[in-house]
Each structure stands twice: as structure tokens, then as C-alpha cells.
Design a protein that fits this description.
Elements (H helix, E strand, L loop, with lengths): L1 H16 L2 H8 L3 H8 L7 H11 L3 H5 L14 E12 L4 E2 L8 E6 H8 L7 E7 L12 E5 L8 E7 L2 E9 L5 E4 L8 E3 L7 E11 L3
Helix pairs in contact: 1-4, 2-3
């Protein structure tokens, strides 16, 4: 059972990195070797596990199945757990969401990753949500997890989670001089949308997207 758990979580780590080719470049091995580790045909050496976990911010203990979210053997000195909520951010036409305040689970990250990649020393106001739809392809795939910083609502262009007309969405926002907001999808099949000042009455920013976990 632990082998199956490792294969599943190793695939998650590879999804975070983006591709077998990229993982192979990081470790200076072939993509075929990465695939053998992923498929359980051989076991990766400790150096490989360590490098990939450092690259993605994942915990080695979590990867090899030594602990689960909320377990008592959590190394609080080096690892933090960010809550994941049952809220779906539509990367398409929008999806109505219920307000869920109890986390589904927690996703472990190393403190070093938060400091290096996100310039954060704490997990306050950080949440993990799920994106659905195809309008943010190739940046965000359907089912990908995203880390949102709820404390960052600065009106600086970027990738945001927001609520519009009771729908939770994830798009690129461009803040215009006149006060309007342009909503842009990465998928060229979707046209940009301009929100006027009057439209902003039913618009609220949840926070800025700081990390994207790609599904394998």
C-alpha cells in the first residue's frame, strides 16, 4: 500500500514540476528514468527525492508516506501545512460555490520554499483551492490546485482569484486607469472582458495566486 501511495504522490510532485523532461533536467537523468520511478519499476535514490521536494516545496516525509496532514510526527520546524478548502475556482464560465469554512485537508510545504519562492514567513491568509475549466490553459489545467494569498488584494496586474456575481473565478486582472478592470484568459479561445465601475458592485477579490500545482 505504501508503494502505491508513493507512486501517487510522486506523480503529484512531477505534476508540480510540469513535465518529465523538466524533472529529468533538474536531476540530470533521462525522462525514461523518471518514468520508471513514477511507474514503480525502480526506486528513486534519496538525492532525487530530496532535489524534487526542494524544487516543489513538498515534504519528503509526505512523499514517502511517513506522515499525513495533522499527524503528530509533523516536523513543525521545517514544514507548514496550508489548508485546502472545498471551493472551486472556475477557469471557464463560472461555477457557483458554497462558503465552506472547514478545510478538506492540508497540503504540506517546507518553510524554506515559502521563504524562497513566496517571500513568506508564515501561512497566515494562505489557502489552497481547486481550479476547474480550460480558459487558463496552458498556465492552469483543469483540476489543478492553486495557492491563494488572501492578504494580497493590491491593484497590480496579475493572476487573481475573485468572486463575480456569486461565482468564484480565476483569471488575469488588468487594472485600468479609469477604474475599470480587464479580465483576461490565457486560453485565446476566450475573449477579454471589461468590468466598468458599476460592475464592481458585485465583484470582490479573494486574493492573488502565488503557486500553481499542475496535475500530472
Amino acid at each position: 500500500m505504501r508503494d502505491e501511495l508513493f507512486k501517487k504522490r510522486f506523480s503529484v510532485v512531477l505534476g508540480d514540476i510540469g513535465s518529465l523532461k523538466r524533472a529529468a533536467e533538474i536531476l540530470d537523468v533521462t525522462p525514461e528514468q523518471i518514468a520508471r520511478w513514477r511507474d514503480g519499476k525502480s526506486r528513486p535514490p534519496l538525492f532525487a527525492i530530496t532535489e524534487l521536494c526542494e524544487e516543489t516545496g513538498r515534504s519528503i516525509d509526505w512523499l514517502v508516506g511517513l506522515k499525513i496532514p495533522g499527524a503528530t510526527n509533523l516536523n513543525k520546524e521545517t514544514t507548514v501545512q496550508i489548508p485546502r478548502y472545498d471551493v472551486h475556482l472556475s477557469a471557464g464560465d463560472g461555477r457557483l460555490n458554497e462558503d465552506n469554512t472547514t478545510p478538506l485537508d492540508h497540503i504540506p510545504f517546507t518553510r524554506e520554499f515559502l521563504q524562497k519562492k513566496l517571500s513568506r514567513s508564515s501561512i497566515e491568509d494562505l489557502v489552497i483551492l481547486e481550479a476547474t475549466g480550460d480558459s487558463m490553459l496552458p498556465t492552469i489545467s483543469d483540476g489543478a490546485l492553486v495557492l491563494v494569498d488572501k492578504s494580497d488584494e493590491a491593484k497590480v496586474d496579475g493572476l487573481f482569484a475573485y468572486i463575480q456575481d456569486e461565482f468564484a473565478r480565476i483569471k488575469r486582472l488588468r487594472f485600468m486607469v479609469g477604474g475599470e478592470i480587464e479580465i483576461v484568459s490565457d486560453n485565446n479561445l476566450y475573449s477579454p472582458q471589461i468590468l466598468s465601475k458599476s460592475d464592481l458592485e458585485h465583484f470582490r477579490i479573494i486574493g492573488r495566486v502565488r503557486w500553481i500545482g499542475h496535475t500530472p
